[in-house]
What does this fold into?
Amino acid sequence: MMKWSLWQAGILVLSIIAISMSFYSVINTPKLGYVIINEAFDAFDYKKEMEKEYLNIRNTRKRLLDSLQVDISVLSSRIRQGENQKEIVDLLNRKRIELNSKMEQFDEANELLAKDSDKKIIKQLNQYVEEYGKRNGYSILFGNTNGGTIMFGKEAYDCTKEVIQFINLRYAGTK
It folds into this structure.
């Protein structure tokens, strides 16, 4: 049987400790990734649906404003042709006031609708990204917003495409 010297035993113990520490660090290395938020936001099917709804509402409002513009043009034309009846002038003034009022009202409503839609989309997107991270064992998923929070990340950590696929499947209810 081979006798171990103190020196050999020490090297063996240090080797075992080094291997154990390496193994422990590999096992406990957090899984990290990042998502390019603007890409995920733009590719999110829910965002596309909300955008269509917003455009429909905005276009309906625009048609109403266009109709008022036409009424004002017709009344202005009648006045230019010599019909200066008080009723026509009063109607023209009422239409102008109505148009200005509706324009302000619609501008504010469109802005509020856009902000509300964005808020709903971002809330849903964040929930799905969190769910994606948990299901796929991530310790941290960073959001790259092109605002300087992540200046560089290796492409291997970019999980944007996978997240987009996940959120759209999840939104469709198939995952």
